[in-house]
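Supplementary notes (optional reading)

For those who missed the lab, this is the record we used. Protein: Pseudouridine synthase. Length: 309 residues.
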Amino acid sequence: MKLVRVADDRDGQRIDNFLVGQLKGVPKSLIYRIVRTGQVRVNGKRAKPDTRLASGDEVRIPPVRVAEREEGAAPSRGLTDRIGNAIIYEDKDFLVLSKPAGIAAHGGSGISHGAIELLRALRPNDSIELVHRLDRDTSGVLVLARRRAALTGLQEQIRENRTTKQYLCLLQGKLPRAALSVNAPLRKSILQGGERMVRVEDGGKPSLTHFKTIELYSMAALVEATLETGRTHQIRVHSQHLGHPIAGDEKYGDAEFNKSLKPYGVRRLFLHAKHFGFELGGKTYAFSAPLADDLAVVLDKLPAAKGKK
């Protein structure tokens, strides 16, 4: 058992993320278990999974058996090399990836290693935290923080919708106008079987997406989507609401449309986070990632719209 005093730069951090930093290499499933079973205490009281720490708090951490540590196999060298090669920017505050599709932002739900776990394995002496998330099948800009102040500062910007986030997506058909906006509230729900779905529904959280057509094809349009809010699956659900779902979207998309695109190489959700910009501490940040190679190949193969060569 050890007692750890919370440093000033960890003020406000959730207990599970704090423990990840204290118990290097211990699977998150085990960390959640020792919290849920009351083995972790903050100032003498049992911690809850959503407990947030304050500077100066005293955290009691139980011993973790070596055998339990070995429950989670270390990631392969190939995976850590892949995530290392995906780093497009880093300084004392941030580390930014052009995240490959197929790698989740974080582990869980049957996924042993997400981007954050791979980076921690690659940089075991660094303190790295996810600032935001991307779906597993979404490629592009993913920002992580290397200092607590950078994490909380940027997350505050995100909550207040003061960042610029733009995506590229391939939508079914042709939008009714070259530029339009969808202002429709979104609500998360859990269906039988535990699958999470998001719906346009009165009483949901306010959600606003701007769509701008970049290129037309015979059966689809390449569209830039700019987020004014950052709700779960926002672009996917708003494009579905428009009647122009994203290519390759198995949850919110059109099955026949997806099938028709198989010959052109669509094997996953055609959604790419191309740009993330913000200002913090008097400095302007602007991160961009070129369209992923597998999606660029699709565009090369798609037939042009009528009247275009």
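If you only remember one thing from this example: The two ends are 70 Å apart (CA to CA).
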